[in-house]
Amino acid sequence: MVVFFNAYPEVSISTYTPGASIYYTLDGSEPTLDSSPYTGPFIIQSSLTLSARAFKENMTSSAIVTAGFELAPIDLERFVYVPSGTFTMGRTVGEGYDNELPTHTVSLNAFFIGKYEVTQAEYQSLMGTVLGLTNGVGPEHPIYRVNWYSMLKYCNLRSMEENLQPVYSINGSSNPTDWGSIPFEPNAIWDAVLCDWEANGYRLPTEAEWEYAARGATNDPDFIYSGSNDAGAVGWHQGNSGSSTHPVGQKLPNGLGNL
What pLDDT is recorded for position 259? Predict the structure, then answer.
């Protein structure tokens, strides 16, 4: 299970005056012709005040426009930045299963994704002991034997723990203490969960986001597995795991640094 929160905001600046040039600063100071020229959308990576102004020869410069950004700090030891882009989704190498075909083009916004699977220590610190962990137990092992409903609660609890905005809501509440016990059978109320795509808290990636991140945000090179054509180099499986989980981060990363 991997969770992530929204990435750095992308900023675009425009002017209604044809032929005008825009200059901007990132420290709240007054933009001048010696400031940074705006050439296209760019990413804001920290809390700051953006100031912009348009200039055109023989015309009075525009009023200064400002925008403040308050961003939660990103722990780059735990998360990988996945840039926006377009990729071919589906089985692009060899013969695929029906649910991997036909391949199709998908475009995605940028986001952050966990560098590793959620560990047992991370999960249990918020959710308590998980029963039935028998094939690999340890704080740095990935959590398993949890269902989708458990994921909803975990993501929101983790968001609240880190003062982020929870993504999921059930019956109008984003506080899991209002949801009752986690279901272990299909539950219509929990199935009606709403996802706030603008929130900066934790959630699971969509299928397209997951594949895009696993591919390293590219189809070139077009590996079969995440970062390699050798499954054993980048992942644990039945042939090399000894039928047990292993601590996270022991295999080679893909091009983005996902492990």
Answer: 66
What is the helix (H) or strand (E) element at residue 123, kind and residue range? helix 120-127
Residue 228 falls within a domain, yes or no?
no
Torsion of CA 210, 211, 214, 219, to 10 degrees: -150
**Coil/strand/helix, residue 160:** helix
Round to whole Å and give the CA distance between 242 and 64: 63
- Is-contact 167 199, C-beta < 8 A? yes
Instruction: Centre a 10 Å sphere on the Cβ of residue 109 and count the other Cβ atoms it contains.
Output: 13
* Domain assignment of residue 22, given as a range: 10-69
Helix segments in 171-245, DSSP class H = 188-191, 207-214, 231-234
Residue 221: asked if its preceding bond is cis (omega within 30°), the reply is yes
What pTM was computed for the model?
Answer: 0.79
pLDDT tens, 89-99?
999 988 878 88
**Of residues 209, 216, 148, 205, the one with CA closest to residue 182:** 148
Q: Is residue 14 part of a domain?
A: yes
In a domain, 135, yes or no: no
The pair of three-digit structure tokens given for residue 228, joined into one six-digit string: 């390699």
**What is the count of structural domains for the chain?**
1
